[in-house]
Specification:
Blueprint lengths: L1 E4 L11 E5 L7 H16 L3 E8 L2 H5 L11 H9 L5 E6 L2 H4 L3 H12 L2 E7 L12 H11 L2 E5 L10 H9 L3 H8 L3 E8 L4 H4 L5 E3 L11 E8 L5 E9 L10 E6 L4 H4 L8 E11 L7 H25 L1
Parallel strand pairs: 1-4, 2-3, 2-5, 3-4, 5-6
Antiparallel strand pairs: 7-8, 7-12, 8-11, 9-10, 9-12, 10-11
Helix pairs in contact: 5-6, 7-8
């Protein structure tokens, strides 16, 4: 798959193409429905399937003081888009200057002159151009003028439209089951494994700690069953703690993964420090609480490991 960072990276002779537009944060099931239609139509028309996306997220440019947690980092977004069978992703550097282009200018410069689109696939709620003035009807009219077809995709979902907003809400509540249902996979975070306070090791539950700048939304505080994936692609079952260690009066939120039943004789010291690793969240086991005394905490941690083991055995069987 071609990955173009900026309009100037698109080859001048590229095309014809079938194009879609979106932020694609999470690349969830709703996104993949659009992308599936896109790649099918591109194949039928002997054209390239192209997704136009934006970095940074427009909300962060227009509302820099507000907090919009992103479901996944840029690298994961591009990798996930590549998995859908796209021929290319055009990542537009979203700036205030770029946002001032009118709907007509955006279509002319990006969709027509750069990508030579013969068709555009978008949701009926699409908005584009300065002040989001362009909508689906605008795209249809511009398609008539410039000679490309516009294919509208209806909302997809079950009890509610699948959306990045819904995923963020679910993760904020610790409801990874709902988030994963919308995503079509386990929610993940990616970051470097760093040294922590080593309390887990002292208690008999050593953990791999994600750096505080890891990408991906941190779900609500609690204990989760999930997977730790190292740089080599090895997947390890894990009980994952998210929170500030209230038993020890911690203050900063941490994501720590305790690998279950790790075979030390096969993996040596299991040294992941410095590695870029992934933590995947399968199910929430319980909220985070403070315990009175170390013995009560250790007893609970043993229960957490047993619960996580059972959840992950089921998850592995269903994979």
């Amino acid at each position: 798959m071609h990955y173009w960072k900026g309009l100037e990276s698109v080859p001048p002779d590229f095309g014809p193409s079938v194009v879609t537009i979106g932020n694609f944060d999470g690349v969830h099931r709703g996104h993949r429905e659009v992308l599936s239609t896109l790649t099918r139509l591109a194949g039928e028309r002997s054209a390239a399937a192209v997704a136009i996306s934006f970095d940074p997220h427009p909300a962060k440019v227009h509302r820099p003081d507000s907090y919009l947690p992103l479901i996944m980092g840029l690298a994961d977004r591009v990798d996930s888009l590549a998995e859908t069978g796209l021929d290319a992703v055009l990542m537009v550097n979203y700036t205030l200057a770029f946002s001032q282009a009118t709907a007509e200018e955006f279509v002319q410069d990006v969709i027509v002159d750069r990508l030579h689109a013969c068709a555009v696939v978008v949701g009926h709620d699409v908005r584009f151009g300065r002040g989001n003035a362009g909508d689906f009807d605008t795209m249809v009219e511009l398609g008539r003028i410039h000679g490309f077809d516009v294919i509208g995709i209806d909302d997809v979902g079950e009890t509610r439209r699948w959306s990045s907003t819904w995923i963020r809400e679910a993760l904020t509540d610790g409801d990874v089951a709902t988030a994963n249902e919308i995503l079509g996979r386990a929610h993940r975070m990616r970051g470097e494994i760093v040294h922590g306070a080593a309390r887990g090791r002292e208690l008999g539950f050593p953990t791999a700690n994600l750096s505080t700048d890891a990408s991906g939304i941190i779900p609500a505080d609690g204990v989760y069953a999930g997977w730790l994936v190292d740089e080599a692609g090895m997947r390890w079952p894990a009980a994952i703690s998210v929170g500030s260690n209230p038993t020890f009066e911690g203050v900063s939120r941490q994501v720590e993964a305790h690998v279950i039943d790790r075979p030390d004789e096969e993996v040596g010291d299991f040294d992941l420090y410095g590695q870029q690793s992934v933590v995947e969240f399968v199910a929430r086991l319980r909220p985070m609480v403070a315990y009175h005394g170390i013995e009560a905490l250790i007893e609970q941690m043993n229960e957490d490991v047993e619960l996580a083991r059972g959840v992950l055995e089921h998850d592995r069987a269903g994979a």
